[in-house]
Write a structure and sequence with these properties.
heterodimer; A: 146 residues; alpha+beta; five-stranded mixed barrel; 2 helices; 27% helix; B: 667 residues; six-stranded antiparallel β-sheet; four-stranded antiparallel β-sheet
Chain lengths: 146, 667
Amino acid sequence: MSAANRIGGRRVLIIAALAIAVVIGYVATQTLQSAAVYYLTPTEAAQRHFVAGEAARLGGQVLAGTLVYDPASRALRFTIGDGISTVKVIGSGAPPGLLREGAGAVVEGSFAADGTFRATQVIAKHDEVYTAPTGSAVPTHQTPGP
Amino acid sequence: MSWGDIGAGALRAALALTLGGLGAAAYAAWKRDARALASARSVAIGTFVLVLIADLAMVGALVTHDFSLVYVALNNALETPLFYSAISLWAALAGSILLWTLILAGAAGWVALRGTRSLPRLATVALAVLFAMLAFFLFLTVTAADPFIRIAADSVPSNGNGPNALLQNHPFMALHPPLLYLGYVLTSVPFAYAIAALILGETTDRWLTETRKAALASWALLGVGIVAGAWWSYAVLGWGGYWAWDPVENAAIMPWLTATAYLHSVMVEEKRRLLRTWNIALVIATFALTILGTFLTRSGVVNSVHSFTQSAIGPLLLGYFVAILIVGVGLLLYRMDDLADRGSVGAPLSREAIFLFQNVLFVAATLTVLLGTLYPLIAEAVSGAQLSIGAPYFDRVEVPIGLALLFLMGIGPQLPWHGASRATLERQFTAPAIAGAAGAAVAVVSGMTGWAPVLTYALAAFVTATVVQEFGRGVRARRTLHGEAAGSAFVALFRRNGRRYGGYVVHLGIVIAVVAIATSQARTTEVERTLAPGDAMDVAGYHISFAGLRDITEPQRATTVADLVISGNGASAQLHPGLVQYPNTESAIGSPGIAAGSRDDLYTILAAYDGTGFAWATIRVRVIPLVSWLWAGGAVVGFGALLAALPPPKRRPIAVPVRVADAVGAE
């Protein structure tokens, strides 16, 4: 393999590596645009005054003590909040495995006339903090010391 | 003295001692002072013992249900079984940090005892760096993540909350977090040595050979921990999947990706003295990503960019991450000229060129995962828009990158360094190319649709053929040269060159895992039916009869299970998917019933049932092909890494002069 060959090879190599990086960067940013799921917080949703039945997507934190699933009726109920407003969500089917109180959730569906949100899809967002990030460090059912 | 007193005292003493050790190690390195080094060593051992005492105190408090500690009251109950009490050490943030600190203290101890004997000056500076990190984590354990905070004596509860339901539902919880933490923390050893080399202006690659085993171990533990986590997710969360591209998973896979890139590019440095700046950058990036991941998953920032300041630990971890980046990148820029390569990667069809492409792809995979993970936070911070990035983004971007990497995995090891001739290409790739075509045919015949699964099968067969070819040639060479039998020649390959042949075993493990992923993703069947007792359903050749529902009451939980009798496909099993109610959660948690097999898993979920008369149940059934092979693939990867770490046998003196690089590489 001659020296000239190698120098040519090196240029090919650099161009190829850069081309790969550019293509991946382009595909990633394009995909990001199309795959992003936008949602409103309960406060923003309240300001938008949705009509009953109009499609909407809401996101917030599942409030502690609100997540209830009734196996018989398959009704899934919980409340999401953003620290200012809250929305009661009613869905159907067992909760997604990652859905839990204190963690984030995105719900797709529409508002009913009574102001509850009827979710057709529930997406859980979670991190490793298994309890609500706010609130006291003392268990809720115990009386904190003075 | 209570558990709390012992633990809190030990941590504070450890922090004071570590700060002293930092001073001693720095002084020892600066003045080459043997006595200071001796005291730094003693400090490392003392710190490890103290942190061990603190960890044991926490375990003691958990198993004796000492609810005077907030951590125990929140994560334990009188009903919690002993096993889950003990492993609740890592059930929440403060305990996890405690375990993390213990592993870090262990790493510092190892460097102090072993490292400072082989490379005294370098290891002493590395030890100082590790002491600095240890001081940070010990600082966390006495401030933002104090595991020994007490509840006022007059309000100590009679019983605690119990561990998080998801964490006490399966013994795998005992396995995957410690594996991941070990992997995360061991990345700090190569990092500490790299920083030490930069500080001292080391021009040799000694730091790199010295930390090879730590880098390999951290990579393998991270990988096995990720697979164990996927298995836990599969067996516990009851959604029938194992990977969801959520931030917790992304946080674990990002450092694994850069570590994989490093394990390969480091060979280019060893063989050709190239890519030195790049390798240090990868070591810094890997370590920084473990901290970034911890910040993302522990600070609440995933829920909202504004919530991380609500957690006490968020700003501290972010500050630590920024400090690591500033120190790492700053030192790297400062030493850039000393690290300049003498020579360059040449021919596009050489092993080093494939490593270069492989590195570009691994870094691109890391950056795109990072982008998808951070984009919602960036968008919220910049425009206030709320959005989430789901699996479709990651699937569309990472699957092609993964397939390209699979292709390079077949090519790289077959190409010689410096460049390949046409004859070499034919010799190396004829059989594998035929195997690849056969793999594609198998995929099409077995009914795979879509380019990704078919290409995965083709590439998997291609890579497997290259590995088999390598082993075949290795065995044949040994038989000719040494007259060994085939079996002993095969074993000798690992004994003589464990790194290379262990690496091939790792590649085979990856192939097994990739085929399992492609097949289980492409070919899962899901059926949901509402059945009365005595009814049955048929899914993909399985006959599932529903015998009825029953309640199981245990001290710590109440479970309603559906009894299913499985037949067909040669299976004969009873499955009991259920919904588990823990006293500390409102909502019941699904607990799947799984009949695992080599051909497919029958995954059953109790989706709904009649709570009043047990008259009916809705059963969701997923038949997931080859998914067990994913766990097996993970085990093979771990085993291959073990083989690669085997010390070679003592070399007899031989007449042929040994190249310095080989002698150093032999360790």
